[in-house]
Amino acid sequence: MLKKAKNLFARRFASARILVKAINCQLGFFILYSLFFIGAARAELKVDIIAGNVSPIPIAIQKFEAKDAKLAATLREVVENDLKSTGLFHIVKQAAHPKLVKMDEMPVWRDWEAIKTQVMVQSRLTETADGKYSLQFYVWDIQGKEQIEAQVLVAPKKSARRLAHIMADSIYERLTGEVGYFDTQIAMTTETGEMGNRTKRLAIMDSDGFGFRYISDAKTMVMSPHFSPNMQTIVFLSYRDDNPMVWTLDMNTGAQRKLGQFGGMTFAPRFSPDGGKVAISLVKNGATNLYEYDLENSKLRQLTFGDNINTSPSYSPDGKKLAFNSNRSGSQQIHVMDLGDLSEQRITFGNGRYATPAWSPDGNYIAFTKIADDTFFIGVMSPKGKNEKILAGGWYMEAPSWAPGSRRVVYYETEKYSDTERVSHIRSVDIMGHNTYDIKLPEGVNGLEPTWSPKLP
Q: Which of 100, 183, 423, 424 could form a Cys-Cys staple with 414, CB 3.0–4.6 A?
């Protein structure tokens, strides 16, 4: 095996097929080179991410080779924190690393085996001739004694931190076989100020809480943001001029527009998977029903009827069904509608009330809020309402939203410290109910109604 690995290293560039992919984004222009080795055996090293409590894989991220040592250290820390946050990887501390293995050298397997490392990563950060950053990295399976990934990422300097998130995504995807979610963003409603007189604004941040910034002013109360599939637009509820209506925000220009004129209060917006429609709740004549607004032809289609409260719509990934909560059965429960013939069925029958359904990107789960025995819970179940699993519980929590890959959920939890002090956190948990953590917000900022973006373009 060692001889085979050495031969693989020797022909790294001689027999490599290079895939070049351009990535357009709001932050800059990325070029990603993935090197696939012809004739090389692929290692069977895999992490089972749904097996429950599994032992984390020891992974060593070597010190980046770079002239800018401070930036290199920052990017390395981002990669380590991303991988560590999954609960699937144990980061081998740099102090325990053997001698640095440079990018043009092979690892000495026994050195890394001696510190019980299973995966080792080499990296090099350089500046290109046109003033961009280039991040090259190799991933080695120490037990299999072979290289299992090699990539080069190029980005403008202002987007350097995204290089680290994309690198972490690549490592995660290679070792788990699942979609990465680090190069993403989270939009949310924020609250600041004294309880009872708080200001609500929209904000956005990277998946790890970095780059927090407001995207609405403090003049108008806003709530319930949701991304379009292409990340170009956010829909949200705005109380502008004391008239609660759904608005859109263009992420490129910052322009805000009211979503149609419907003759009643609109709220709880959610984009369809193709981005061409927005499902909303519309209040008319004392009833709250679901409608679907076609953005291209500005047509409104009514989906539910009657005098009940129907809200919190969430599309299935194929756009053919809609999950929502309704009180038509006498209590708040989750229903699923076929958007073809508008037939629907109730899917929740457990103890308590159910709300805020969110369909997972892979279509296999619906996340929900459950209220039972004076406690709020976040859980997941199948689209038929089977195999309910509670992931978290507390005094108040709500609004689950899925990460790309359908393996983590973000939500908010409010903790009551006293009658005059309540603090709301943005938290994330995996679908096994393990590895819950807070996403750090600025001091004095309460986070509510988070929504996880698709992977950045």
A: 424
Question: In the 8-state DSSP scheme, what is residue 309?
Answer: B
> Identity (one letter) of the amino acid at 41?
A
pTM: 0.89
In the chain, the percentage of residues whose pLDDT exceeds 90 is 82
The region that residue 421 occupies, defined by phi over 0 for left and psi between -120 and 50 for alpha, beta otherwise, is beta
Tens of pLDDT along 164-209?
A: 999 999 999 999 999 999 999 999 999 999 888 899 999 999 999 9
What would the pLDDT profile of 17-42 be if each residue is shown by its tens digit? Answer: 233 333 344 444 455 555 544 334 44
In DSSP terms, which residues pair with 257 in a beta bridge? 248
* DSSP conformation letters of 30-65: EEEEEEEETTPPPP-----TTSSS-PPEEEEEPPPE
Which bin fits 178, alpha (ψ -120 to 50), beta or left (φ > 0)?
beta
The CA distance from 47 to 174, in Å, is: 9
Work out the number of other CB atoms within 10 angstroms of the CB of residue 93: 10
- Give the Cα separation of 169 and 138 in Å (integer): 14
| Residues in Cβ contact with 201 at an 8 Å cutoff, skipping those fewer than 6 apart | 189, 190, 192, 214, 216, 217, 218, 222
Name the token pair of 165. Answer: 């998130």
